[in-house]
Design a protein that fits this description.
Layout (H helix, E strand, L loop, with lengths): L7 E5 L4 H12 L3 E6 L2 H14 L13 E5 L5 H14 L5 E4 L17 H22 L8 E6 L22 H29 L6 E6 L7 H10 L2 H14 L3 H4 L1 H8 L7 E4 L9 E3 L9 H15 L6
Parallel strand pairs: 1-2, 1-4, 2-3, 4-5, 5-6, 6-7
Antiparallel strand pairs: 7-8
Helix pairs in contact: 3-4, 4-5, 4-10, 5-10, 6-7
Length: 317
């Protein structure tokens, strides 16, 4: 990773797992990291731990960037709006936005705004956040002259299927199918926003210097699996998840590498960064390809139109 002094990165879900490791790495390279967390208390605890590991950082040494913990609950569009408005008040630009936070395979529930939670948090919350931070991204110098939008997906996108007649799973619900759909939606969004940026740059006078990149971490040992087990209410599932994490999972720091690569390496807009090892579930980052459904431009456009209305966000193209 290059030095990131003077750069601002926003990371959702920054207090644990991949978000924590990404935050730690950005800060170690000198970036100011806005830690967008559902719980400010847990976010502050994570920030204190990063500062302690860095030797008392938070700007006190040449190698450590500032950490700014702020509340952002992706299950609440009002919270997303408040977070974005606060950033606009305090920051001139955002160089990197990592749409990282998520929930996985939980029993059906709804967000504050009435959307199925996995779809609402994993996709719609990040769609709204990206739209509301777009002007700050557009005003940034970026890592290499272009700001980055990095959207974290999952290999589970391959089991996802877009059903626009029941996006919120009101007719039927399968928690793993819903997770797969939300991760497919992440990719449809990541590629579609790049298409729209490219189209605007072909047609407009003022260039939009923003690059959208998708990624997935492989099988990383994080608390995402443990939360899935806890939500299931099945104690055997909790034991199974812990065992699977120990045997199959790579550590969270390695799992965060595709996100960091997507955010700072010389990759094309619309790229898909994934682990290059066994079954693309382990190892160091490489440029790969997601499944054919994720490149369906008709589905992407339809999802975009739905999301614009549902999230109440218009992108300034």
């Amino acid at each position: 990773m290059p030095r990131l002094d003077g750069k601002t990165a926003v990371v959702t879900g920054a207090n644990s797992g991949l978000g924590y490791e990404g935050t730690r790495a950005f800060a170690a390279k000198g970036a100011t990291v806005v830690m967008a967390c559902r719980s400010v208390e847990r976010g502050e605890d994570a920030a204190d731990k990063i500062r302690a590991e860095a030797g008392g950082g938070n700007g006190d040494s040449d190698s450590d960037g500032d950490l700014d913990v702020r509340e952002c609950d992706l299950a609440s569009l009002d919270s997303v709006t408040g977070f974005a408005d606060g950033l606009a008040d305090d920051y001139d630009a955002v160089d990197v936005l990592c749409n990282n936070a998520g929930v996985m395979a939980i029993p059906r529930s709804e967000t504050e705004d009435g959307f199925e939670t996995q779809f609402g948090v994993n996709h719609l919350g990040h769609f709204a956040l990206t739209g509301r931070l777009f002007s700050l991204l557009r005003d940034a110098e970026g890592v290499d002259g272009e700001a980055r939008i990095v959207t974290q997906s999952s290999g589970a996108h391959e089991s996802g299927e877009m059903d626009f007649s029941d996006l919120n799973w009101e007719e039927s619900y399968g928690k793993w199918k819903a997770y797969g759909r939300s991760k497919l939606a992440n990719l449809l969004f990541a590629y579609e926003i790049q298409r729209r940026i490219d189209a605007a740059n072909r047609e407009g006078d003022a260039p939009i210097d923003i690059r959208s990149v998708a990624c997935h971490p492989g099988y990383a040992d994080t608390n995402l699996q443990l939360r899935t087990a806890a939500e299931s209410g099945n104690p055997l599932m909790k034991v199974g998840m812990r065992l699977a994490n120990a045997v199959l999972g790579q550590d969270a720091a390695t799992g965060a590498l595709p996100m960091l690569y997507a955010a700072t390496a010389d990759v094309d807009g619309g790229a898909y960064v994934e682990p290059g090892g066994l079954m693309n579930m382990r190892g160091h980052p490489t440029i790969g390809r997601s499944n054919d459904a994720s490149y369906n431009s008709e589905d992407a456009s339809r999802l975009w139109e739905y999301s614009t209305e549902a999230a109440g966000v218009e992108f300034p193209f």
